[in-house]
Amino acid sequence: VCPPGVLPLCRPPAWDRAARPPPSPPPAPGLPLAPCRAFSNNKIQVELDESSGVAMMKFKSPPVNSLSLEFLTEFSISLEKLENNRACRGVIITSAVPKIFSSGLDITEMCGKSVEHYAEFWRAVQELWLRLYGSNMVTVAAINGSSPAGGCLVALSCDYRIMAENPKFSIGLNEAQLGIVAPFWFKDTFVNVVGHRTAECSLQLGSLYPAPEAHRLGLVDELVPEEKLMEKAAAVMAQWLALPDHARQLTKTMMRKALLDRLVAHREEDINNFITFISKESIQKSLRMYMEMLKKRKS
Amino acid sequence: VCPPGVLPLCRPPAWDRAARPPPSPPPAPGLPLAPCRAFSNNKIQVELDESSGVAMMKFKSPPVNSLSLEFLTEFSISLEKLENNRACRGVIITSAVPKIFSSGLDITEMCGKSVEHYAEFWRAVQELWLRLYGSNMVTVAAINGSSPAGGCLVALSCDYRIMAENPKFSIGLNEAQLGIVAPFWFKDTFVNVVGHRTAECSLQLGSLYPAPEAHRLGLVDELVPEEKLMEKAAAVMAQWLALPDHARQLTKTMMRKALLDRLVAHREEDINNFITFISKESIQKSLRMYMEMLKKRKS
Amino acid sequence: VCPPGVLPLCRPPAWDRAARPPPSPPPAPGLPLAPCRAFSNNKIQVELDESSGVAMMKFKSPPVNSLSLEFLTEFSISLEKLENNRACRGVIITSAVPKIFSSGLDITEMCGKSVEHYAEFWRAVQELWLRLYGSNMVTVAAINGSSPAGGCLVALSCDYRIMAENPKFSIGLNEAQLGIVAPFWFKDTFVNVVGHRTAECSLQLGSLYPAPEAHRLGLVDELVPEEKLMEKAAAVMAQWLALPDHARQLTKTMMRKALLDRLVAHREEDINNFITFISKESIQKSLRMYMEMLKKRKS
């Protein structure tokens, strides 16, 4: 499936290694094969340290790093670039916005828009998860702020989660609080981290956990003082990169392939479910009320 | 699938929302639509507080609330009535008999009876579980006494389990102690609460756990002093009811549908397995011995 | 499926109770039906105490009880003999070599050999696991030394694991450290013991855990001082044997059958995967380097 001559760059995510063409086109003729050291976009800043093979990915979309269609697209493209860059073996994901890792899916993308827009948005959410959960790179979430709903999903999809121990920062899949339902693959990802019982209870209550409680439940792997977060993330990354890539990647695929395959097999159905659900007037109303509440709280 | 005009009452359990006709007939003409406040039956007392939307269901079948065919039938019908009552959003299940929540399946129903009786009995056990595990209502078990075998299954099928912290009260799926085997859906329900390893060990040893140990394993969610049990159950219920019903119900279905579907798909096979197993002379003998032992212990 | 006249001896492992002929031929005419009290082989010493029904199986293949083809074959045959011996209800598995339980699969069997040899070796690994994980007997691992990789799998396949509390003894599926990948049924067995999250992290890092950490993760069930290990193993065995065999065996089958079936269904494919992987020059090279390192460390 890889065009001749670009094999070294051809490293699609684990979930479609066999089935799909390489996710990005080969570099244009004349461009050097060794790619970007740093690329800044609108919403995410990416820096690759080629000596260590570790990229730092920082969300910088104030006020709350919400996962808009634009943000998700940039996120997927950034991951894809790194995935295809032989010099990059791992990514640390963190936030450049104080007190917030990511607030999750952007509600304005789900409110008062066309069916076509909902479909495009949801496909972008799926794409991001497929790419992140199925990444061949080592992915470490350095959670330096609150991380509800889709923000929590981003963290859950990494290989390892380190959180600032500040009890004011909370994390969880709190969709139910907004009257909406996490899709099955959010749920599956969650169950694989915290087990069925905690997920069942937590998803129904839309629980957000302060960092210490999140750690107790296994939702995050480690807590450190906020000022030590990046140092710790780098140390954990070094530990994971000490292993041979090939064996680690095959092992990761073995652990995650069933879930990735499940979404790939039901992708259109999942989009239709989302559209049907989100188009309901009762759901639209409850999202509008939630946005009103957010606005009032801010002012 | 709902006859016109009765839609508001039509709320089948989650596991057959799409596939089956509403579980109860519409109310007879002339009867008021707003249903029962309290209905007392032979073996279970039910009281609905319409202001909170919470029903209290109390097992009152001395000496040990054993799950006889009659008890199971009444239990299923009571759940069905509440499920179809728009005023009811949650049920607290507890016992009116001191020191015992429920002793589990009534052994006399499994001893020296006809094949037809075994089939009817087992179908009633299945029906109760399908209805309770798949309930759209919030279900809280307030476990105020011991709860072996089928009694434990009732508790495991609820959304949340609070137990009196008395270490003399024990709970567990102890079928193996009697020489019998918990069916696959008891096992599946158990695994979803405590995980595979604890279930594997516990089911093989037929372990009964004192309340503190049960709490440590996650078999129950919380322990409180016995005199605070109902107060705590009401508080937990209020917390669950603070969430929008629709999102919570869809989430519950997402978590439990696979298990419910599995029994629905293998229901007749499961009945036949039960009949074959229970009809063996060796099993009959060991159940008779167990009943003898219970009688002696009593006198 | 059992030839007439030998029914009492006919007890195939749980995973093929229905489908296959009895795993061993009936005893030759003229031989007494009550078999071996003790049989010593080259690499494993087996002693059966007929009064308790408990066999002691001791690995005695210095220096490190590595699972060579010869060892695996002897191990499978020993289990088969005990399985078919009505006098035997349980096995305690331990090591006669100080400080090591088993070092896992013998790397020399995977290095520089023919494809036919790899196939034969891998089939023997599968056979051992099918027999041990699916055993109808109660199996207790008394882990009196380190137990990496395949040694850990042997322990994980038992019903209960007791480990000497010496923190110098470590245990884990550390295949990734050697640049190789644990097959899916190692992974499944591991997930069923420690859950998905711990397995995912642990397998990717190839983690070896000192005994106390292994206990904390649930990888072993209990720690005891080394001098109490055998006493404790006997006590645990007695506790498991207090249950009626039939119910316990059916329960064990219910818990483990899905995994056993999965390997049985993909056995040839799994062998081919192993051969393809192990035949790669990069893998061969990394195994040779590992062996060099072991040799140097020794001298």
Automatic annotation (TrEMBL), chains A, B, C:
- Cellular component GO terms, alphabetically? mitochondrial matrix
Q: Which PROSITE patterns match?
A: ENOYL_COA_HYDRATASE
Any GO MF annotation of the entry: delta(3)-delta(2)-enoyl-CoA isomerase activity
Query: Where is it localised?
Result: Mitochondrion matrix
Q: Where is the composition biased (Pro residues)?
A: 20-32
Which Pfam family, any one, appears in the UniProt record?
A: ECH_1
Biochemical pathway:
Lipid metabolism; fatty acid beta-oxidation
Q: Provide this UniProt record's keywords sorted from A to Z.
A: Acetylation, Fatty acid metabolism, Isomerase, Lipid metabolism, Mitochondrion, Transit peptide
Name where it mostly resides.
Answer: mitochondrion
Annotated region described as Disordered, given as residue ranges: 13-32
The protein's matches in SUPFAM superfamilies, at most eight in alphabetical order, are given as:
ClpP/crotonase
Q: What is its EC number?
A: 5.3.3.8
For this chain's UniProt record, which GO biological process terms are given?
Answer: fatty acid beta-oxidation
Say what the protein does: Key enzyme of fatty acid beta-oxidation. Able to isomerize both 3-cis (3Z) and 3-trans (3E) double bonds into the 2-trans (2E) form in a range of enoyl-CoA species, with a preference for (3Z)-enoyl-CoAs over (3E)-enoyl-CoAs. The catalytic efficiency of this enzyme is not affected by the fatty acyl chain length.
Q: Which family does it belong to?
A: Belongs to the enoyl-CoA hydratase/isomerase family.
The name this protein carries in UniProt is Enoyl-CoA delta isomerase 1, mitochondrial
Tell me the gene name. Eci1
